[in-house]
Design a protein that fits this description.
This protein has eleven helices and seven strands. It has helices spanning about 1-15, 30, 35-40, 45-50, 70-80, 85-90, 100-110, 130-135, 150-175, 185-195, 215-225, and strands spanning about 60-65, 90-95, 115-120, 140-150, 175-180, 230-235, 240-249. The structure holds S-adenosylmethionine. Its main location: cytoplasm.
């Protein structure tokens, strides 16, 4: 319990979470630094998934990348600076977020613009940009998709159907999916924060049928309806959230 509540307390002090109804906190990485997740993910992940030896081009998608710090740190974690330039060219990340200001910051601070691209995009809207990116890179899918700390925001703002559509869409364009779903206690905290600010509740909070163990229900959907299966669990983050790796069957 402590982790989520602590974070929420910090958020309440540092900025106005009511102004971040999509989880688009302006200083997210000051209270959840990339290391919190990266310490659980092996630096050999791409080799482990069979992507580095002779693979032409490895494409990674970072869903809801906020200001891009985790995308950059993830890239550096998996592709060490010491590697040959030709190897670096083979791994590309596309990070996107619905918040254009966060994406501008990500673009301005991007240390590897030939490998990492940031674009503004709302995943709940039909958009050709992901397909365009895949076409440009001559691939029919992303090899690895990161969906970290995003599911709750799509769920609260777009309901059960929105959450399931998000998972289905990501499964349809990814070979592997690394998922960190926020647990139910975070939903309650997010809704409480909004109420405390005198704003109306998230549109869907009270009517959600997917509640309780959200990560488990996300897993069931991916396995039963999207042709994916869990191949690894990287344990739980310091915020008590599971990091699950799925693979398309
Ligand atoms: C809590 S932050 C997590 C950032 C990052 N994924 C991480 O784990 O470090 C959630 C991010 O998801 C973004 N987001 C929420 N709904 C989205 C949507 N429909 N499309 C794209 N981004 C979205 C928010 O703007 C926010 O930056």
């Amino acid at each position: 319990m402590a982790t989520c509540t602590k974070v929420n307390a910090e958020v309440e002090e540092k900025d106005d979470p009511g102004a971040a109804p999509y989880g688009n906190f302006i200083n997210y990485y000051t209270f959840n630094p990339p290391e919190n997740r990266l310490s659980l993910i092996p630096a050999t992940l791409l080799q482990d998934l069979g992507y580095k030896d002779g693979h032409q081009n490895t494409l990674i998608l970072d869903v809801g990348c906020n200001s891009g710090e985790l995308s950059v740190a993830f890239y550096k974690h998996l592709v060490p600076v010491s590697e040959e330039v030709s190897d670096r060219r083979k791994v590309n990340i596309l990070g996107f977020d619905l918040d254009e200001i966060l994406i501008e910051r990500a673009q301005q601070n991007n240390p590897l613009p030939s490998n990492i691209t940031f674009i503004p995009l709302d995943i709940t809207k039909d958009d050709d940009q992901l397909q365009d990116y895949l076409n440009q890179h001559g691939s029919s899918h992303f090899h690895l998709c990161l969906c970290l700390a995003v599911t709750m925001w799509v769920h609260l703002n777009h309901g059960d159907a929105g959450l399931l559509q998000l998972l289905s869409r990501l499964a349809s364009i990814s070979q592997h999916l690394l998922l960190e779903a926020q647990p139910w206690k975070c939903y309650r905290s997010a809704a409480r924060r909004l109420r405390k600010l005198g704003r109306s509740d998230f549109d869907h909070f009270k009517s959600l049928k997917i509640r309780g163990d959200v990560a488990e229900q996300a897993r069931e959907h991916l396995e039963r309806h999207c042709g994916m299966e869990v191949i690894q669990s990287f344990g739980s983050t310091t915020w008590d959230r599971k990091l699950l790796l799925f693979k398309g069957r």
